[in-house]
Amino acid sequence: xxxxxxxxxxxxxxxxxxxxxxxxxxxxxxxxxxxxxxxxxxxxxxxxxxxxxxxxxxxxxxxxxxxxxxxxxxxxxxxxxxxxxxxxxxxxxxxxxxxxxxxxxxxxxxxxxxxxxxxxxxx
Length: 123
Hints:
This protein is an all-beta fold.
């Protein structure tokens, strides 16, 4: 078994992500959303995602449903389902995301709404 000792880190206007593990058909990330940060309303063509809250409180849009998730709560987002992650609090939100699918690239994203004006951008 090989362990990746170098994390990939991506900075976004809402916070950052750290890739913890990557294999051919899954990827595990730690996602940190800054206070009042909001990811775009988006979907992925080729992957599903599992989100587990490990710190803070998450407001989640998952299809037609809106959820408030606290530490040790989770949601499953099927591929091709519109979803969004928001931090409406004054503290950082931390989730663990497990992606599963045939393609796990950062460019597998279709944005519908974005407060950071990134509609049409792939990352």
